[in-house]
Amino acid sequence: MSKLDVPYKIYLEESEIPSSWYNVRADMKNKPAPLINPATMKPMTFEEMQPVFCDELIRQELDDTTAYIPIPERILSAYKMYRPSPLTHAVFLEELLGTPAHIFYKFEGNNTSGSHKLNSAMAQAYYAKMQGLKGVTTETGAGQWGTALAMACSFFGLECKVYMVKVSYEQKPFRREVMRTYGASVTPSPSMETNIGRKINAEHPNTTGSLGCAISEAVEAAVSTEGYRYVLGSVLNQVLLHQSVIGLETKKACEKYGIKPDIIIGCAGGGSNLGGLISPFMGEKLRGEADYQFIAVEPASCPSFTRGKFAYDFCDTGKVCPMAKMYTLGHDFIPSANHAGGLRYHGMSSILSQLYHDGMMEARAVEQTSVFEAAEMFARVEGILPAPESSHAIRVAIDEALKCKETGEEKTIILGLTGTGYFDMVAYEKYNNGTMSDYIPTDEDLAKGFATIPNVNL
Amino acid sequence: MSKLDVPYKIYLEESEIPSSWYNVRADMKNKPAPLINPATMKPMTFEEMQPVFCDELIRQELDDTTAYIPIPERILSAYKMYRPSPLTHAVFLEELLGTPAHIFYKFEGNNTSGSHKLNSAMAQAYYAKMQGLKGVTTETGAGQWGTALAMACSFFGLECKVYMVKVSYEQKPFRREVMRTYGASVTPSPSMETNIGRKINAEHPNTTGSLGCAISEAVEAAVSTEGYRYVLGSVLNQVLLHQSVIGLETKKACEKYGIKPDIIIGCAGGGSNLGGLISPFMGEKLRGEADYQFIAVEPASCPSFTRGKFAYDFCDTGKVCPMAKMYTLGHDFIPSANHAGGLRYHGMSSILSQLYHDGMMEARAVEQTSVFEAAEMFARVEGILPAPESSHAIRVAIDEALKCKETGEEKTIILGLTGTGYFDMVAYEKYNNGTMSDYIPTDEDLAKGFATIPNVNL
Question: Is the pTM of this model over 0.90?
Answer without folding.
Answer: yes
